[in-house]
Specification:
The structure is a single chain. By secondary structure, this protein is mainly beta. It is built from five helices and 28 strands. The strands form eight sheets. Strands 10, 11, 13, 14 and 15 form a five-stranded antiparallel beta sheet that branches. Strands 16-17-18-28-22 form a five-stranded antiparallel beta sheet. The chain starts with a strand and ends with a strand.
Length: about 375
C-alpha cells in the first residue's frame, strides 16, 4: 500500500499568504485541524535527524523546541533524544516507557513447593514477586524470572503475582495460579493392638493419627504421635508418659516404658558398638505397625528440618507431626532425662559404630546430630 502525501491549501486574505497543512498516511485522511504535519501509521514512526554531539553544537541559532536524536549523548552508547529549550540543549533521558506485564510461564508443582515462572519483558531491568497484589512489599527478584516457593500444602491452589520494572516505573501484575500436587493417599488413622514381649514393653491398643504432605518428605505417611504413646502430645513441653510413648536403643527392637518412677522391662544394655545401621529385622515401626512402616533415615529428618525451617522446639511442634520434648533414657541405667524439655528422635542412620543420628531440639535449637547408641530415644514412624 502506497503512502499518500496530501496537501490542504488555505488562502488567508488578511495575511495574503498561502497556508498548507500536510498529511502523511495510507488512506487519504485529512490532517487534524490543529496540526501543520499529521503523520498517521499503524506500524511506523517518525525518524528525527540523527546527529552526533559536534554536529548538534554546530547548528546555528537553533529554535526553541528543536528536536534531534544525539547518537553519542546520554549515559549509554545507544544515545538519547535532545531538545533545545531555554537556550540550551537538554537530553530527554528521563523520558521512557514502563514495561508491560510479564506473561506467566509453565509452573512446576510438587507436594509442598511450586516453581513459579514468567517470561522476560522487553525494556524491563528487573522483576518483583509477591504472595499478595502489593508491589511495594513484593520481593525484588532482580533479573530472575523464576521463584521457588517452599513449605506449601499438598493439593492446594495458590495465587501469586509478578511485576516487571525499569527506571520509569513498573507494570501491572501478572496473576499466576497453580496447585500443588495431590496429597499422598494415606488413611486418617491406624489402630494397633500392642502385645507385651520382645518389642512392646506393655500391652495396650492405640489408635495413631496419620498425616502426609510434610515439607521435606511430602510423599510419605507419618504417625502423629510417638510409637507407644496413648495419644498425641498436648503441648511442646508435655512431660507425661502417656504422650511420650516408649523408648528404644539404636538397632534394638525391645522398647522401654519409663513413667518417671519405674522402668519396664529392666535395663540390660549399657553400651552398643557395632558397625550397622538400624536393620529392618529390628525396626519396631515395621514390627509393630506393619509392612511399609519404618524409622526415618537421617536424610529424611534433615530434609524435614530444612524444608520446615525448624530452628527450635516451636517449629516441630507447630508442624503437622506435632513432635514434642519427650525426653530420653540414660544409657547407663535407663533413667528418665529431661522429659518436657528435650526432644531426641532416632533415625535409622549411623555415623559410626558407636553412635546413631537423631533429630534433636529444645527451646533454642533444632538439628540432627549423633548420640551414643545405648541411649533410649522415642520413635516416630513413616511409610512410603
Amino acid at each position: 500500500m502506497k503512502t499518500l502525501l496530501t496537501l490542504f491549501l488555505f488562502f488567508s486574505l488578511s495575511a495574503k499568504v498561502m497556508i498548507a497543512q500536510v498529511a502523511v498516511n495510507t488512506d487519504g485522511t485529512a490532517p487534524n485541524g490543529s496540526a501543520m504535519l499529521d503523520v498517521n501509521s499503524g506500524d511506523k514512526g517518525v525518524l528525527l535527524p540523527r546527529m552526533n554531539y559536534s554536529q548538534i553544537m554546530a547548528i546555528v541559532s537553533p529554535a526553541s523546541g528543536l528536536m534531534v536524536f544525539c547518537t553519542d549523548c546520554g549515559t549509554t552508547a545507544s544515545g538519547a533524544m535532545a531538545i533545545f529549550i531555554n537556550g540550551t540543549w537538554n537530553l530527554l533521558n528521563t523520558i521512557c516507557l514502563t514495561p508491560q506485564a510479564p506473561v506467566a510461564g509453565v509452573h512446576v508443582p510438587s507436594y509442598t513447593q511450586i516453581v513459579w515462572n514468567w517470561n522476560t519483558v522487553p525494556g524491563a531491568t528487573g522483576y518483583k514477586w509477591s504472595m499478595t497484589n502489593d508491589y511495594s512489599s513484593a520481593y525484588d527478584w532482580g533479573t530472575n524470572t523464576s521463584m521457588t516457593e517452599l513449605s506449601l500444602t499438598c493439593g492446594t491452589v495458590y495465587t501469586r503475582y509478578a511485576w516487571a520494572y525499569n527506571g520509569c516505573g513498573y507494570s501491572s501484575p501478572v496473576i499466576m495460579t497453580q496447585s500443588t500436587t495431590a496429597c499422598p493417599s494415606c488413611p486418617p488413622s491406624i489402630t494397633i493392638n500392642h502385645v507385651a514381649g520382645t518389642i512392646a514393653p506393655v500391652s495396650k491398643t492405640i489408635t495413631y493419627g496419620i498425616v502426609s504432605g510434610i515439607p521435606g518428605a511430602a510423599s510419605k505417611c507419618w504417625i502423629t504421635s510417638n510409637l507407644g504413646a496413648d495419644h498425641q502430645a498436648t503441648f511442646r513441653s508435655d512431660a507425661t508418659e502417656a504422650s511420650a510413648g516408649w523408648n528404644w536403643q539404636f538397632n534394638r527392637k525391645q522398647g522401654y516404658k519409663n513413667d518417671g518412677s519405674s522402668l519396664t522391662p529392666s535395663w540390660t544394655i549399657t553400651s552398643i558398638n557395632e558397625n550397622s545401621e538400624w536393620i529392618a529385622a529390628n525396626d519396631p515401626c515395621a514390627l509393630e505397625l506393619g509392612t511399609g512402616w519404618r524409622i526415618p533415615t537421617n536424610t529424611e529428618w534433615d530434609n524435614v528440618d530444612a524444608a520446615g525451617w525448624w530452628s527450635n522446639w516451636n517449629d516441630p511442634w507447630s508442624s503437622n507431626l506435632k513432635l514434642h520434648a519427650a525426653g530420653y533414657l540414660n544409657s547407663s541405667n535407663g533413667s528418665l532425662v529431661l522429659r518436657g524439655s528435650y526432644g531426641a528422635y532416632w533415625s535409622s542412620s549411623q555415623p559410626g559404630s558407636d553412635a546413631g543420628y537423631a533429630l534433636y531440639f529444645d527451646e533454642s535449637f533444632c538439628y540432627t546430630r549423633s548420640y551414643g547408641k545405648a541411649y533410649g530415644f522415642p520413635l516416630r514412624c513413616l511409610k512410603e
